[in-house]
Amino acid sequence: MTPQELEAVRARLETFAAEMFSGFARADQRRWGERYVRGLLTDGARKSMEPMAARLGVDRQGLQQFCTDAPWAHQLVLAELAWRMDAAINPVAWVVDDVSFVKDGQESPGVAAQYCGALGKTANCQVAPSVHLVTDAASCPVNWRLFVPEQWDAASPRTEDPAAVAARRQRCRIPADVGHVPKWQLALDMIDELESWGLDPPLVVADEGYGQDGAFRLGLTERDIPYVVGVRSDTALLEAEACRSVAPYAGTGRRPVPRYRQRRISARQLVLEGGRRALHTVRWRMGSKGPLRSRFAALRVRPAGVRIRRAYAGGELPVCWLLAEWPPGEPEPVKYWLSTLEADVPLRRLVGLAKIRWRIEHDYRELKTGLGLDHFEGRTWSGWHHHVTLVSVAHAFCTLERLNPKAPAAA
């Protein structure tokens, strides 16, 4: 925002910040919280400590101490934020995704050579899963976790020098109870935390980076949370009509047990066998250049991966939706999803929810280019979580301003 735009919304920003930071015991921390968010909202190429402090006309050390060293719990702020934005957005889904932060050095917590979505290749970076409250009209990140690679876990059996790793962790002030956890498990932990704050997930949406892992899908099912998640084309499936049967007993050895005798088939092959005649053209929303439409196939299937079969050993595999997008002109489908939405869900709704992840790209673009999500230069665990939490507060304020027809100045 320009200084003039920021001044026009100053009163609303101060009210919102007071609400977000109401859990702080000290008045000076509440003041620094509002200043930091104001610094993130103010125009400027960099949203790191020194340039923000200069634009705000405040002491850089005070700003840095508040973000990096002050002992405030970022979860308290995120809980306030989640309650406020859940009421404001009324989300149709919680979207799980992750974002990467390219780094040059080796001392930032969690930095390692790993897949970097920002660059589309393996690079030196941090990776952070997040959960967003989403509708087609608005969205907001309300929980974050910084991923800890195995190289940062002194207790990992793959760690060659535990003492060096322990020293590195100590420099970054990583808590002793924080170790390497798969990203899908971090996502489930964040969902559990949001539920512990009193929020109720209507539906979880995720790309194949999460949906391909059967443990993530099982975790959602165990929590009775419906989902629409991306999967790879080689995901093992059975047709919905498949059922367990018992082979005739030969009279010797162990008696046969019920099992599925139909062949498992990949999602790709299943859709290809259905052919183009099974496709339906669906328009799911209006884009900037007109209506968005494509062709989709929706089939009832039973997931048949190893983890799923083990989880349902002795019982019937669940039936769910396989959704595939097969655009005109393409020789085969380009995207696949599995969903546990009800059997009579309209195809347009199923497609719309599968595609609602577009809002997250909007979030990350604004969080990075406008609010300095990846500008944090500190090297502490708490500092990183404080920064992304404060960026989320700034993003939420922008979202509320856009949703408020009486507040055009913050658009």
TrEMBL record:
- What's a Pfam family this protein contains? DDE_5
Transposase IS701-like DDE domain: which residues? 19-291
Task: Give the highest taxon in the source lineage.
Answer: Bacteria
What name appears for this protein in its UniProt entry? SRSO17 transposase
Organism of origin = Streptosporangium album
Organism lineage reads as: Bacteria, Bacillati, Actinomycetota, Actinomycetes, Streptosporangiales
